[in-house]
């Protein structure tokens, strides 16, 4: 059986999450509760991909987006100039 037949479509997954948290409040602080989503990805300064794009997608689907940076890219809208990978220790520290 293929993975695509087993997995729910992404929008269906977010619909389930939104229904689960919709209208629930933290009584102590009086704020709406939202699920947390974590992206572990590279940083694309144009926000067309990577951790920034993931967080924007999380937010647009009612989730609080968190990010862990694995690499910094050097690019603009027309050319890619390179990247610097983050060390494993740096990535682990961000996840803590």
Structural notes for this entry:
With 96 residues, the chain is an alpha+beta fold. The chain is 36% helix and 31% strand. It has helices at 3-6, 10-21, 50-60, 88-95; strands spanning 25-26, 31-32, 36-43, 64-75, 80-85. Strands 3-4-5 form a three-stranded mixed beta sheet. Strands 1-2 form a two-stranded antiparallel sheet. The radius of gyration is 17 Å and the shape is flat. The termini are far apart. The model is unreliable at 1-14 (pLDDT under 50).
Summarize the structure.
Helices cover 36% and strands 31% of the residues. The protein contains four helices and five strands. The longest helix is centred in the first third of the chain and has 12 residues, at 10-21.
Question: What descriptive keywords fit this protein?
Answer:
alpha+beta; 3-stranded mixed β-sheet; two-stranded antiparallel sheet; 4 helices; 5 strands
What's the SSE pattern? HHEEEHEEH
Cα radius of gyration in angstroms? 17 Å
N/C terminus separation: 36 Å
Strand order of the largest sheet: 3-4-5
How much of the sequence lies in strands comes to 25-35%
Quaternary assembly: single chain
**Strands, total number:** 5
- Percentage of helical residues? 25-40%
Mean pLDDT: 77
* Biggest sheet features: 3 strands, mixed
Please state the structural category. Answer: alpha+beta
Number of helices: 4
Note poorly predicted spans: 1-14
What overall geometry do the principal axes of the alpha carbons give?
flat
